[in-house]
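Action item from last week, closing it out:
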Amino acid sequence: MENVKLNESNSSFHVSGSEAMRSLRIEQVWVRQWPERADEFKLIVLDEKDVPIYRQILHAQEAPETAGTDTIAVGKEFAFYDHLSVVLTTEPGGVPFSAEIIFK
């Protein structure tokens, strides 16, 4: 498993395809700091042409094994050839947050 820490200033990451990696499975999102003034907090996956192929609105779900954080299960796998982008976004934009995306 790998993880990437994201926040309002660094809200996305990009995965490039290789012979060894042609898919990405997002297991969960650990929210360290929820966006307080946001109407929506979303996970978005974009394909090679930056077209959204998956969206999930994130809601608080307290997990006892991760005290002090909220864990949101995703459990989705995405196949790609060239690259894939994963974005956490708030509506309205620019609202402070901190989260980690756990993937393999």
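Closing note: The beta strands are 2-7, 12-16, 23-33, 40-46, 52-57, 70-79, 83-91, 98-103.
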